[in-house]
Design a protein that fits this description.
Blueprint (H helix, E strand, L loop, with lengths): L6 H5 L15 E2 L11 H11 L11 H11 L6 E4 L2 H13 L3 E5 L5 H8 L3 E5 L14 H5 L7 E7 L11 H10 L4 E5 L20 E6 L12 E5 L1 H11 L9 H12 L1 H24 L3 E2 L6 E5 L5 H10 L2 E2 L1 E2 L8 E5 L3 H19 L1
Parallel strand pairs: 1-11, 3-4, 3-5, 5-6, 6-7
Antiparallel strand pairs: 2-8, 7-8, 9-10, 10-13, 12-13
Helix pairs in contact: 2-9, 3-9, 4-5, 4-8, 10-12
Bound molecules: pyridoxal-5'-phosphate.
């Protein structure tokens, strides 16, 4: 590493996103992108703002914050908007977890570990159960306190549904975790919540330690626009603004802000697209189960699959050769699984046909 790097750059543990090769055209089922385009109202809204690009965007992202507050039935001071939910998560780590201990599942979205390294949080892994589900009773700082007597508790980071398992934890269980940890911020990352499950945002008035993070990247087909947001108690939101305004006041650009508002207002399109994806998820799940795969009960826009006789690495390589990219993790416990984003019906038919063929060939 370069001698010019600061301590901050040296200690960083950069996240590795799903590969984006350019050697040929792939069917991309490795980054949980939405296969469908965004609402047509988005491009119209963006067009209308283009001639105003000489002006800075609104540092408070007021129109977007207001639209989100209306949509989620909360007040404007309960909402924070940012440049993708990764940025919102980074600000939350900086505001609540820097230098403190956090509890996090051992198998989850790997970016949390990257943030923890960067902000010098003590990352305490809580193992998932054998079936890869979260046991809510495990998430209680009282249980860890004795083992970490010098640590200051920051909170809990839990995606719901979890990634990459897609397993959803009922709202009543989330509430128990929030109640059991009044001295820490319980951050629920709901990147995939729209694909059929209930958000915990309805609980923020009751708990001052609950922070919900969501994104426009998945259910609203806007991964490229970079919009994420948090919903929580006004004091938590103020804390995140303190961080944002110590870094960059204009994180949400003008085009993204108005594009996101347009997407939020097109409810019919949103419902149609997310229903399409969940329907495809269910069809593909059944097909793969029939073909001998075991799948977690994913409520996300992806499936998580394993086969007891066919190594995941083999399937991953063969699929790649045939032009289909999926995600394989080398992590113990899940290294025989593949995470496959739900693509269009056409893409998923191609994927399933290749899988069927590979299974037949392996049996010969
Ligand atoms: C669980 C989870 N959280 C957050 C993100 C980040 O999404 P974005 O930064 O695009 O909003 C992802 C992206 O894949 C994710 O899987």
């Amino acid at each position: 590493m370069s001698k010019f790097y600061s301590k901050l750059a040296l200690k960083a543990f950069p996240y590795t996103p799903g590969e984006q090769p350019t050697d040929k055209k792939y069917i991309k089922l490795n980054s949980n992108e939405n296969p469908y385009p965004p609402s047509p109202t988005v491009s119209k809204a963006i067009q209308e703002e283009i001639h105003k690009l000489n002006l800075y965007s609104d540092p408070e992202a007021t129109v977007l914050v207001k639209a989100l507050a209306d949509y989620h039935h909360v007040k404007e001071d309960n909402v924070f908007a940012g440049n993708g939910s990764d940025e919102v998560l980074a600000f939350a780590f900086a505001a609540f977890f820097a230098g403190k201990a956090i509890l996090c599942p051992d198998i989850t979205y790997n970016f949390y570990f990257t943030f923890a390294k960067y902000y010098e949080s003590e990352f305490i892994e809580v193992p998932l159960q054998d079936d890869l589900s979260v046991n809510p009773a495990d998430y209680n700082w009282e249980r860890f306190k004795k083992l970490h007597p010098r640590s200051q508790f920051g909170g809990i980071v839990l995606p719901n549904p979890n990634a990459p398992s897609g397993i959803y934890l009922q709202l009543s269980e989330i509430e128990k975790i929030v109640q059991a940890n009044p001295d820490g911020v319980v951050l629920i990352d709901e990147a995939y919540i729209d694909f059929g499950e209930e958000s915990a945002a309805s609980l923020i008035d009751q708990y001052d330690n609950l922070l919900i993070v969501q994104t426009f990247s998945k259910s609203r087909s806007l991964a490229g626009l970079r919009i994420g947001f948090a919903i929580g108690n006004a004091e938590l939101i103020k804390g995140m603004k303190r961080i944002k305004d110590s870094y960059n006041s204009f994180t949400v650009d003008r085009l993204a802000m108005y594009g996101a508002v347009a997407a939020l207002k097109d409810e019919d399109y949103f419902v149609e697209m997310k229903n399409r994806i969940t329907a495809t998820r269910e069809t593909v799940t059944k097909k793969l189960q029939k073909a001998g795969f075991t799948l977690t009960n994913s409520k996300g826009s992806f499936i998580f699959m394993t086969h007891k006789d066919i190594p995941a690495t083999y399937l991953y390589e063969q699929l790649k050769k045939e032009g289909v990219l999926v995600r394989h993790y080398k992590q113990p416990r899940i290294n025989n699984y593949l995470r496959v984003s739900i693509g269009s019906d056409e893409e998923m038919n191609i994927f399933c046909d290749i899988i069927d063929r590979l299974i037949t060939e392996t049996k010969v």
